[in-house]
Amino acid sequence: MQGLDLYYMLELVPVILGYVPITIGIAAASMVLALALAVLLAVERVVKVPVLDWFVVFFISFFRGTPLLVQLFLFYYGLPQVLSFLTQINGVTAAILGLTLHFSAYMAESIRAAITGVDRSQWEAAHSVGMTQAQMMRRIILPQAARVASPTLVNYFIDMIKGTSLAFTLGVTEMMGAAQKEAASSFLYFEAFLVVAVIYWIMVEILSQGQKRLETSLNKAYAR
Amino acid sequence: MISIRGLTKRFDATTVLNAIDLDIADGERVVIIGPSGTGKSTLLRCLNFLDRPQSGQIRIGDLHVNAEKATKADILSLQRSTAFVFQNYALFANKTAKENIMEALVTVQKIPEAEAEQRALSVLAETGLSDKADSYPTSLSGGQQQRVGIGRAMALQSDLMLFDEPTSALDPEWVSEVLDLMRRVAERKQTMLIVTHEMQFAKEIADRVVFMDEGRIVESAPPDELFGAPKDERLKSFLRRINK
């Protein structure tokens, strides 16, 4: 067994770190969009708008039921063949679109479960003071559901950050893409992928710390 | 003036409210008594459509709702002209005592936030909970939570306040502070419809007591008369049972 080329790894760290913004950018944009879409999907699943509900059930089923990589290929390589106006779609856009749709399906299910878990008395109280359905959702039900759903949602965000690595298959040079290129020219695959693995790991650990703070602040209304 | 005609509610095959007729004058305090499971709470819940009645007419002031044809807008109007005090308090768990009272003033009645806050603070003062303004429901006792619940309903300044067994879920030690607060609400000539098992309180506060049994109003009279000279056999036997 050969020793690790530590000097090469140290050199590689700033190179890969240079691609952290693009990875975080894709993940953050996808998270914001997925969360917004997931809330809409979840509320629809609870309220059950006729006809629209079938579409939502179908949407969630499809995007949970097929691999993320397949979805990304479908958007990036497949769709432009059918919808000609999409020929301009770039890798980053396709990655954000894929991650958004994929994770919104998962998030919708956990948000829906959290909404239905909010005590019935909260719905009745909101109705009794004359709130509309939308006011009740926004002001009373969703904030309480957020507290229940947040640990799961942060987990999905962690998954999403790691999922951005698939964007390199769409020709996007993010952290994984950069590591791949470096490894291909140096032939030091183990070193290159170990560096990128550790950087992902550290990012996720930082996020987990943030999760703890988020939970503390969401729990403040419930602490005795 | 509140007028209820032919209000009927069925759960599957069971008729819980059987063509209820009831008039309540402005400022009148009506207490509903009767055995458990006779539809007292359901009557209250049907008046603001927490439970949807199958048929009947509800008039509150100028608002007229036909239960069979009630639209979303009708239901919202009913809910906005009534205020409800729940047996289990049902305070908004994500809001402080003050925010619980402010919430509907701001989102429903569109009162500017600063003014709503002033009103909430003055309601809290009336309920004796000024020091709990920033406390969340979980840190309040049952009695304190119910006083906030009553405060939330008071602040709405609605045409009709509905009380659904407001002391039934309370530990005995908290009952009197809640009843005291209800007495103070009554002094303001607020129209009140109260379901309760507190007979002494009913005698004292009610302009009129309504006895319900098996989904119907059996007897309705001022408290002296209803408790002093009950006419119907079912009422007599109910009063004997509770006075044992």
From TrEMBL, chain A:
One Pfam family from the UniProt entry?
BPD_transp_1
Membrane spanning stretches: 16-43, 55-79, 85-106, 183-203
Which SUPFAM superfamilies does this entry report, sorted A to Z? MetI-like
Q: Note the topology in the membrane.
A: Multi-pass membrane protein
Is the keyword Cell membrane assigned to this protein? Answer: yes
What molecular functions are annotated in GO for this chain? L-cystine transmembrane transporter activity
Q: Which residues form the ABC transmembrane type-1 domain?
A: 20-208
Q: Which domain of life is it from?
A: Bacteria
A GO cellular component term found in this entry reads: ATP-binding cassette (ABC) transporter complex
Asked if the Swiss-Prot or TrEMBL record annotates the protein with the keyword Hydrolase, the reply is no
Keyword list (alphabetical) reads:
Amino-acid transport, Cell membrane, Membrane, Transmembrane, Transmembrane helix, Transport
Protein family (similarity comment): Belongs to the binding-protein-dependent transport system permease family. HisMQ subfamily.
Note the NCBIfam families from the entry: HEQRo_perm_3TM
Q: What does the UniProt record say this protein does?
A: Part of the ABC transporter complex GltIJKL involved in glutamate and aspartate uptake. Probably responsible for the translocation of the substrate across the membrane.
What is the name attached to this protein's record? Glutamate/aspartate import permease protein GltK
Species: Ahrensia marina
Automatic annotation (TrEMBL), chain B:
Superkingdom of source: Bacteria
| A GO molecular-function annotation | ATP hydrolysis activity
Q: Which Pfam family, any one, appears in the UniProt record?
A: ABC_tran
Q: Which residues form the signal peptide?
A: none
According to the entry, every stretch annotated as the ABC transporter domain falls at 2-239
Gene3D superfamilies given for it?
Answer: P-loop containing nucleotide triphosphate hydrolases (3.40.50.300)
Q: What are the UniProt keywords, alphabetically?
A: ATP-binding, Nucleotide-binding, Transport
Q: Which SMART domains match?
A: AAA
Which family does this protein fall into? Belongs to the ABC transporter superfamily.
Listed PANTHER family: AMINO ACID IMPORT ATP-BINDING PROTEIN, HISTIDINE TRANSPORT ATP-BINDING PROTEIN HISP
How is this protein named in the record? Amino acid ABC transporter ATP-binding protein
